[in-house]
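Figure-free illustration: sequence to structure, shown twice.
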Amino acid sequence: MALFACLKTARLFAHVLKFTRSLSPPGLSFVASVVVLTAATGSAFAQGVAPSSTTGPAPSFKDPSFGTRSRGNSFNPDIGVNALFLYQNSNRGRDAGSVDRNGLGLQEAELQFTSDVDPYWRFVGTLSLHQEVDDSTTPVEREYVLEAEEAFAETIALPVVTLRVGKFKAALGKQNQIHTHALAFVDFPLQNTVLLGEEGLNDLGISGAALLPTPWFSELTLQGLSGQGEGLEYFQPTTANSFVGLAHWKNLIDLSDDLTSELGLSAVTGKNQSASSTQFYGADLTFKWRATANQALIWSTEYLQRDLNADTHEVGQGVSTWVQLQFDRRWWVQARSEYLQINDPSTSTTAATHQRKQSALLAFVPSEFSGIRLQYDHLNDSGPKDEHKILLQYNASIGAHPAHAY
């Protein structure tokens, strides 16, 4: 039966590919390929190893089990709110016209809705309230804007595979997928903010993730993105029906009862405004050790490279490495070192070509719903003076607190 199912899905995959290539642009063919390929993989696994419950009658709205999967009331979404309040003081932020001026502000507030749509799909919507700065005016204009940070639906009933459609954080590296309040430090690493932009690689698209048949946890993710999202100036293709393709391979390996390692590899390619191409390459490695509830040690390193073919062949690359030590139930001490280099920058790149940054952080985390973090940054970006900055952040969450990337 398993072989018969594989043959049927393979024939279906071939027919769909042929049909979409004859009637649709290359971007839609890629999307159809991802959907059918992941569905075929799930079908083959379901025939071979899925539990008997997957072969029983399909659940319905009259099924007593429907609705119990959702957290909270079956027809009301779970709602969670997170707020980040930030005080900063820098030797470069003393001017009232500075982009990052000194003082207290709202770093970000998130409103998240999560619910099962039915027995097959789950929906996640996240609204972000944050401050945007227009430094092209005098004085600098600041205003708070409310934007849809993520809004996607994903499958919850398919074995082995997970399909996702909507607007989401792309699976490029590790840090790009993390929300601000879940970061290890107060801010994102340099390579993310400079090479990916303030919003990161966050775009409309479709995603298919499949578990690979390995002795350890191994997941392969393929995504097709529009490339037209806010802040994606390094893509924004001008040719019709263009898309951005992404591949991410994630591996989790238990080295012992207390020690776990994570290895990730990423690649992205797509057309840009110059009708040429832009590529990203990423790698991340993390070790997590936890002996007791009061002691933990995390060491993480991430590398990111951007090749931008425009008026010049710009190559930007950065690496960041950091250590987090939990020395008491509610206390953490952390350190981070970063390096960023941009060779032959294009006319659209305004960042310094060489930057070095070191950070130290002390955190008091009384519970999973709140935390206070004090961070010191030293930045050398070839400016007249190095920047020295103190940041004090208060993190508060209320309502539903679903699991997320961290």
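We now fold a second protein in the same way, so the two outputs can be compared directly.
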Amino acid sequence: MTDHTLATHSPPADATPLPDMRESLRTWGWIALLSFGGPAGQIAVMHRILVEEKRWIDERRFLHALNYCMLLPGPEAQQLAVYIGWLLNRTAGGLMAGTLFVLPGFLSILVLSFIYALWGSGGWVAGLFFGLKAAVLAIVLQATIRVGRRALRTPAMLAVAGAAFAAIHLFDVPFPAIVAAAALAGFVAGRQGWVSGTVAGGHGGGRGSNHGRAAGERPAALGTDIPAHARPSRAWSLRIAGIFLVLWLTPVLMLLATLGPDDVFTRIAVFFSQAAVVTFGGAYAVLGYVAQEAVQAHGWLMPGEMLDGLAMAETTPGPLIQVVQFVGFMGALRDPGALHPLVAGTLAAVLTTWVTFVPCFLWVLAGAPWAEALRGHRAVSGALAMVTAAVVGVILNLAIWFALHTVFGAVDRIGYGPLSVDVPVWSSVDPAALALSAGAVPAVLWLRVGMIPLLAACAAAGVVLQVLRSGLG
């Protein structure tokens, strides 16, 4: 892949120099190792290092990139890394930044998946994940409240969130259909001027300007000038889209042709390719969709194991959506065919990661030069606002689903005509899980305990409880 020639412009004499690939490699590797805390924490780390410390990009340009990434399906923090890496070092820089952002989490979760598969059914490992479930529940509840406060700015948005919750919780409406309906309603409403919405942030300043810096700070390396490789080009977008479509879909089509549609690897490739297109709203929003399909439709893992996988993703660096790697691992582990179960699980983890993240490079590298065309578009803003509102309802459903499967050992799905609802079996309540959850939730919501201390405390408590249970047994 080749880029257009870089634009020639004259930055201020005291501007920070643009980094070369070696310096970018070191910096993106360090960012990847620090990328704990979900999207908010990861974006904060990038902002601190790239905007405040390195001065490679200014505040407004950073928000410009973030705004575009929030329009896309997939993990916005990883896509932001691709976008900024591409701006700084062209296509190679975007590929490097996006890959490094995923790599530590992939390796960490793969190791944890092996440990879980070999020793996760008992002992200290079981206690560790038992404790982490309570922390994950508190974190998801906190995410629901935070996203809701930011997104539900009008009664119409509140109504959309409520409708989305009812659709997925009571009627089992698929997540993609909810996103599509919300986007269509918001597009029409925005076009008619009935609703408006924006993604946080903005950008401004003319060519050669360098806003978003405090007095005495050096101008950022990028400023707001547009490099030639970042200018819209239909030929470039079609070429890069074609390359990444081939990279993304070739393994899927090969599996369909050689193993057939019912093989576990084919089903994993097809399902997570579909998920990559509809994961608007970040990891928490799509997890409800993934859990619904992976647990109930495909039977790749049990509800409690979905929580264990999320606990892995919460405690390792990288995008939270990396939990899908664990889902694929467990699905193939249980249906390995002629392969050794651990070999099948490893191959499925690689396959899941590939079809989840290759599309992210496609969306950014092909679409980022055209991002400015979306700015200030009233209908698009309305669609985004309603999709964000719908995502809040989906995350609330996820929080309730996690709560039920954390505290209760058995949950029944009871139907009433078109309605169906999860009802806990009250006799299956786990007192230890209830006690841990009752401590973790107020610690996060009211005492504002940080994520790392919360995870550490809950994990330690889980191990202690497991040891006590083993001793009493």
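Summary for the second example: The first helix runs from residue 21 to 33.
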